[in-house]
Design goal:
Blueprint: E1 7-12, H1 16-31, E2 35-36, E3 51-56, H2 63-80, E4 85-90, H3 91-96, H4 99-103, E5 109-111, H5 119-129, E6 133-135, E7 156-160, E8 162-163, H6 174-178, E9 182-183, H7 186-198, E10 203-207, H8 223-231, E11 239-243, H9 252-260, E12 267-269, H10 277-283, H11 289-302, E13 307-314, H12 321-334, E14 338-343, H13 361-384, E15 390-395, H14 403-406, E16 408-412, E17 418-422, E18 435-439, E19 442-443, E20 448-450, E21 459-462, H15 465-474
Parallel strand pairs: 1-2, 1-3, 3-4, 4-5, 5-6, 7-10, 10-11, 12-13, 13-14, 17-20
Antiparallel strand pairs: 8-9, 15-16, 15-18, 16-17, 18-21, 19-20
Helix pairs in contact: 8-9, 9-11, 12-13
């Protein structure tokens, strides 16, 4: 590697929105002349990049501890190399601001969720001034999709349809950190989708804090269902996913759009949070358990076999054993294929942090373990029902941690279940981004095993444009180096720029 080349390392914590923001941070740094540390051959790779960026999350209680622990580990490297620059962005940066530099004075840049695009300039300014730069904007000025992006995958991509959230859930700090919902126009979204497909992408995931309230900003309550149908018209786009909807705003037109649009996948992430109506009311979740279960019934009526996942919080302030039993009852009735389960943790700045009835840690832990046990039973039963069925798996590197040991490939079925696929010696081997059709031979609690190819059963590989795109990236790559797609320029806004209100000088007022 050229010794004058500067490297970067973006470390991501948190949700899919953060993952996509990190792709934009990578794109900005690449455009500014930096090189991804992971792309440097192992023998030439420095221990620490010239620029290390932490894209943080503030949802969980241990987020700050994790950040400061990571910053502490970098302190010796900073002392050894004062030219090393450390930047902290994301939700925790938006929340804690200058206190990050006070606690970790070796940090060079702190930037918020609304000014991702400022990172290269802030790094230059900090280097020139030899002082930390802290810039936190209170509202979004430029929609992030207008920024350069360095995608992680050649065949799969995130597409933001909105940022921010208008809900007021008492446990959640996200609205105060990412602001009110702002929606992109459908034409801009579809232009980005078509550009991605032209680059070889076969799967997209539409992103928003609350995707099914998409359209609220421009007055179209049916906009999300229309957007799903429009994605179905994009030639070459094989899989469309989205996350996350809110049960209160989830409408039947979206279910029908999912059912009638072949490339919209039969999977749905629907956050429940609690099965107790009393707790849901305290959470300010504007639905109740009966409405939630009714949505799931209508989804399964129109999309038989849909895999439904959820989020669950245990130990919300005031939660009683009866409330918890209500949650267990709804979990049994919902038959979730899997669930992201969390123990409630106090987030300063949220209404729930000030509520009476904080549940003792030991009680929360015991309930949490019971919930995990039940959900594993439900997941396992659902996966066992799939044994013998054929599934189409989009092969992905890194999905199976034990693939090297088991000599399998891994990927996601159409319903987003994780599938580990055995490949017979000498058989056609799918590339990442290709699709392989196999039969499920065993349903485990957290994944499916598909060994039909080595047992004389179904095994068929379909090479895709996504696999072609992945293969093209590998040409000429050095051993041990990670190759990612080239930086994509941001998608410009369609139409005239929004009108800006100009303040009238006081002296001009009669």
């Amino acid at each position: 590697m050229d010794t004058t080349t500067k490297t970067y390392d973006v470390r991501t914590h948190g949700c899919q929105m953060n993952v996509h923001d990190s792709e934009r941070l990578a794109g900005l740094l690449e455009t500014a002349g930096y090189v991804d540390l992971a792309s440097v051959p192992e023998g030439e790779r420095p221990d620490v990049a010239d620029v290390v960026v932490f894209n943080t999350c503030a949802v969980r209680e241990n987020a700050a501890n994790k950040l400061y622990g990571n910053l502490g580990q970098l302190r010796p490297a900073k002392e050894k190399n004062p030219d090393l620059q450390i930047a902290v962005g994301g939700c925790l940066a938006q929340k804690d601001r200058s206190s990050i530099v006070e606690r970790a004075p070796w940090v060079d840049v702190v930037f918020g969720t609304h000014n991702v695009g400022s990172l290269p300039a802030l790094l230059d300014r900090a280097r020139h001034n030899k002082a930390a730069e802290v810039e936190i904007l209170e509202s979004l000025e430029v929609f992030p999709s207008t920024l350069p992006t360095r995608r992680d995958s050649a065949y799969s991509a995130w597409v933001s349809i909105s940022v921010g959230c208008n809900n007021t859930c008492t446990f959640c700090i996200v609205p105060s950190l990412r602001g009110k919902e702002k929606d992109r126009r459908p034409g801009e979204i579809l232009a980005e989708v078509e550009a991605l497909v032209a680059q070889g992408v076969v799967e997209i995931t539409l992103l928003g804090q609350n995707v099914n309230s998409y359209g609220v900003e421009f007055g179209d309550r049916l906009a999300f269902g229309k957007l799903l149908r429009a994605c179905g018209e994009v030639e070459g786009l094989e899989r469309v996913r989205f996350t996350s909807p809110h049960p209160a705003a989830f409408t039947d037109d979206v279910i029908t759009a999912m059912a009638q649009t072949p490339n919209v996948m039969p999977s749905l992430h629907m956050p429940l949070q609690s099965g107790s109506d009393r707790v849901l009311r305290a959470m300010r979740r504007s639905y109740r358990s009966a409405k939630f279960l009714g949505i799931l019934d209508r989804v399964r009526e129109q999309i038989p076999g849909a895999a439904i996942t959820t989020d669950l919080i245990v130990g919300f302030p005031g939660e009683t054993e009866e409330d918890f039993q209500d949650t267990l009852d709804v979990v049994r009735a919902s038959r979730f294929s899997s669930a992201f389960t969390f123990q409630y943790s106090i987030r300063p700045g949220t209404p729930a942090a000030e509520m009476d009835g904080q549940v003792p840690k030991e009680v929360v832990q015991e309930r949490f373990e019971r919930l995990i046990e039940l959900q594993e039973e439900v997941s396992w039963a659902g996966n066992r029902e799939l044994e013998g069925r054929e599934v189409e798996v989009l092969v992905a590197p890194g999905e199976g941690r034990k693939d090297a040991e088991t000599e399998r490939l891994s990927g996601r079925a159409r319903d987003n279940r994780l599938v580990h696929v055995a490949v017979r010696a000498g058989a056609d081997r799918p590339r990442p981004g290709d699709v392989v059709t196999v039969a499920v031979t065993y349903g485990a609690p957290h994944h499916l095993i598909a060994d039909s190819g080595v047992q004389g059963g179904v095994y068929a590989v379909r090479r895709t444009r996504g696999g072609d795109a992945w293969e093209a990236l590998q040409e000429g790559s050095a051993p041990g180096a990670t190759r990612k797609p080239a930086v994509s320029l941001g998608i410009p806004t369609v139409g005239a720029p929004p009108r800006r209100e100009v303040a009238v000088p006081a002296c001009a007022v009669d």
